[in-house]
Amino acid sequence: MSTPTYAMFGLGKTGQATAQALSAQGAKVIAWDDGEAGRAAFAKAVPAVSMKSPQDWPWASLDAVVLSPGVPLTHPQPHAVVQLAKQHGARITGDIELLWQQHPDATYIGITGTNGKSTTTTLTGHIFLQCGKTAAIGGNLGMPVMALPVMDEGGAYILELSSYQLDLCDELRLNTALVLNFSPDHLDRHGSMAGYVEAKRRIFRNQTARDVAIIGVDDADANAMHDWLVKNHPGRVVPISARSVVAGGVYVQDGILVDATSPSEQRFDLRGIKALQGEHNWQNAAAAYAICAMHNIAPAAIYAAMQHFAGLDHRMQWLGEARGVAYVNDSKATNADAAEKALKTYDKIHWIIGGVAKDGGIESLAPYFGKIAHAYLIGQAAPEFANTLEGRVPYTQCGTLDVAFTNAAAHAKAGEVVVLAPACASFDQYPNFEARGAHFKQMFTALKESADVHA
Predict the structure, then answer these.
(1) What's phi and psi for 356, nearest 5 deg?
(2) In which band, very low, low, confident or very high, does the pLDDT at 245 lie, cut at 50, 70 and 90?
(3) H helix and E strand count, the chain
(4) Residue 349: helix, strand or coil by DSSP?
(5) Is 275's pLDDT higher than 60?
(6) Among candidates 58, 39, 59, which has minimal Cα distance to 49?
(7) Distance separating alpha carbons of residues 445 and 158, to the nearest angstrom
(8) Cβ 173 vs Cβ 204: under 8 Å
């Protein structure tokens, strides 16, 4: 039997993990990246791989071309390596499909959507593990799939899947596939909203009568996809909602999760789970619950595991309370749309805001200004945001997060909440939103320790 030969293009974290796995399996791997720095880092990490430009690949003997998800297949135009592969009739694939082909006995759960897929994937994995299931969690979130532990029969891969990754999946069959929601995203890659929706629809491709499709119905595009699934899907279709009653599905009303997937309707109160506050998190909770229920985890066990979910770092992350004031780290809210979720969820907010502003600023958040007890402005956007808030929200110019945190902690009263939801990128003062959120968490930890000492 001849040695399989793979050519890889795009050599980031996913590419490195895939090349290492294929090489360890005895395959011959040829690789290339347009960036010289990427090629150098890759060669250092995976020295067994042969580095060759696509023009020099042995096209006739390739088993497949493994692309990084970021390499455009179509719009605005295919990358040159894609054109070469098509000219030579070479199969194009990605790491998700390679995993599925190599470990076909595992259970595969795929989760996608514009918003909330990371929280839903993490929550689903948390419930599986808390309930004694064998599972590995990764994909677009966290660890690349080819670096995950091997799951065989009885084990599950719980995978966050982006539209870019789904573009590279032709044969992948998911036992359970979920689409949460749609809003305009990656339209430069997919050409239009219709193209983006079609890329997401691929998650249901190849499902059989034994498989389950779970679909959100809280936006027009997702609701239309639900109707399409009801007509076309061979297996079970389970709707989920955070806004309305859905027959035969899982929904949340006023913080109460209702499992209507069976005649013995179950109800669970989410309002006390700090990591699952807000309508968007109720949709995530309904989705994760539906997945777990379809995999025969008992309803009470799902709910018990949810109560111990810590949430994701920097995504409306409940840090705790100090002197009766709650602190929430939503550093990932890098635009107004993202910051809206926190403003919708809480009242009597001490709002830390600012950084590098996005187009449109924060005017779209005006309906929530009445919920703001005080705003603390930082970074480049501070003068612009002051103009927007003038006469509508009391504010203090703070310059830096340290000063803003100190001011907010001094002025917030018991029962109020300090929220870092900057509605801005972080690049004026931090390398990324994670560093900004980590700084906020450090200051809360110090405050909490001081408050406990003097309690």
Answers:
(1) -95, 110
(2) very high
(3) 15, 22
(4) strand
(5) yes
(6) 39
(7) 32
(8) no
For residue 62 the two structure tokens come to 């390739």
At residue 315, the pLDDT reads 92
SS3 labels along 258-312: EECCCCCCEEEECCCCHHHCCHHHHHHHHHHHHHHHHCCCCHHHHHHHHCCCCCC
**Angle 294-276-274 from CA coordinates, rounded to 5°:** 135
| pLDDT tens by residue, 178-209 | 999 987 555 555 567 788 888 899 999 999 99
The mean pLDDT of 12-16, rounded to a whole number, is 89
Eight-state DSSP code of residue 146: G
What are the beta bridge partners of residue 377?
353, 397
Amino acid at 428: D
Tokens of 379: 């970074």
**Sole residue written with tokens 């090349």:** 19
**Which residues on neighbouring strands pair with residue 376, listed in sequence order?**
352, 396
Q: Give the whole-angstrom CA distance, residue 286 versus residue 269.
A: 12
| Class of residue 6 by CB neighbours under 10 A (exposed 0-12, middle 13-18, buried 19+) | buried
One-letter amino acid for residue 372 of the chain: I
CB-based contact 152:173 (threshold 8 Å): no
Cis status of the peptide bond prior to 149, with omega within 30 of 0: no
Give the distance, in angstroms, between the CA of residue 125 and the centroid of all CA atoms in the same chain: 13
Strands 155-160 and 134-139: parallel
223 vs 235: CA distance, rounded Å: 18
| Residue 174 pLDDT class (50, 70, 90 cuts) | very high
Closest CA to 125 of 100, 148, 157: 157
What's the Cα-to-Cα distance from 231 to each of 224, 227, 228, rounded to whole Å? 11, 7, 5
Separation CA 34–CA 166 (nearest Å): 23
Dump pLDDT digits (tens) for 26-48: 999 999 998 888 888 888 888 88
Instruction: For residues 315 and 118, give the distance between their C-alpha atoms in angstroms, rounded to a whole number.
Output: 10
| Domains annotated on the chain, with CATH | 5-93 (3.40.50.720), 96-306 (3.40.1190.10), 317-453 (3.90.190.20)
Residue 413, phi then psi, degrees to nearest 5:
-105, 160
Report the Cα 17 to chain-centroid distance in Å: 20
What is the distance of C-alpha 194 from the center of its chain? 21
Residues belonging to the chain? 455
Handedness of CA 155, 119, 93, 53 (dihedral sign): negative
Q: Residue 445 to residues 42, 107, 187: CA-CA distances in angstroms?
A: 38, 40, 40
Residue 451 pLDDT: 75
